[in-house]
Specification:
This protein has helices at residues 18-28, 60-67, 75-82, 86-94, 115-124, 131-141, 151-156, 165-190, 198-210, 213-219. The protein is mainly α and 231 residues long. It holds the Pfam family DUF6308.
């Protein structure tokens, strides 16, 4: 994998804007269905995609879960995931531990032979599955290790459609894992639950920042954030 530019966290993760980051998380994971976002149920639907009995197998439930993040798996791809490609995908999933965090992965380990990359390639070969949908499928199965990639992540983190895994791993590790520790602290401060991973905390803050929700909170002095469907 080619060396990429350092990843710059969004302005909403600066200490001076901490109340905004907390509000972004609380608004997203609101306990009130009409106030929160459908994506708040992505990792928790059915007990989670990484629960032991199904961690190494894509299920119909996983395909439903990604729709909560406003993507869908086309019928042809769904049939292959649940049918003829099921065993091959399960073998690839089996090579990816459920208990490993991206912050613990050495950047040099992330190359074309890295197990998650091989799974990404296998899913990307299926008709109709783009980069965003593939990232959400893998994040559903390995939420501690694999981040979600989408248009807002690309924009806010200035990726230029480049790679995410390696620069994010590096960003989480520098300065004594400062970013990783900050994401954990924000999760606890927001009270959204210890099952929400640091990667998902970052994803929600980045996504809502890209959507302009943080700007609106700043303008209103951190009042109730905007509601709506996730994407």
């Amino acid at each position: 994998m080619n060396t990429s530019a350092p990843l710059a966290p969004p302005w909403t993760l600066a200490d001076e804007f901490r109340p905004i980051a907390v509000e972004l998380l609380q608004g997203y994971f609101s306990a009130q269905p009409e106030a929160g976002f459908t994506g708040a149920h992505f990792e928790r639907l059915g007990g989670g995609g990484d629960r032991p009995e199904l961690a190494d197998e894509f299920t119909a439930e996983d395909l439903v879960a990604v729709t909560l993040l406003s993507v869908k798996v086309p019928a042809e791809a769904a049939l292959r995931i649940l049918g003829p490609d099921r065993s091959r995908l399960s073998e690839l999933l089996h090579e990816i531990p459920t208990n490993r965090d991206l912050v613990d992965v050495g950047p040099a380990e992330i190359d074309r032979d890295w197990a998650p990359w091989l799974l990404d390639d296998a899913l990307s070969d299926l008709t109709g599955l783009g980069r965003t949908t593939v990232s959400k499928l893998i994040a559903r199965k390995r939420p501690r290790l694999i981040p979600i990639y989408d248009r807002e992540v690309n924009k806010v983190l200035a990726l230029n459609k480049g790679p995410l895994w390696r620069p994010l791993a590096e960003a989480l590790q520098v300065d004594g894992r400062a970013l990783h520790r900050n994401l954990l602290a924000l999760r606890d401060e927001a009270g959204i639950g210890s099952d929400i991973t640091p990667l998902r905390v970052l994803d929600v803050i980045v996504w809502r920042t890209g959507k302009g929700h943080a700007d609106k909170l700043r303008e209103r002095g951190i009042n109730d954030g905007p509601n709506g469907a996730d994407s």
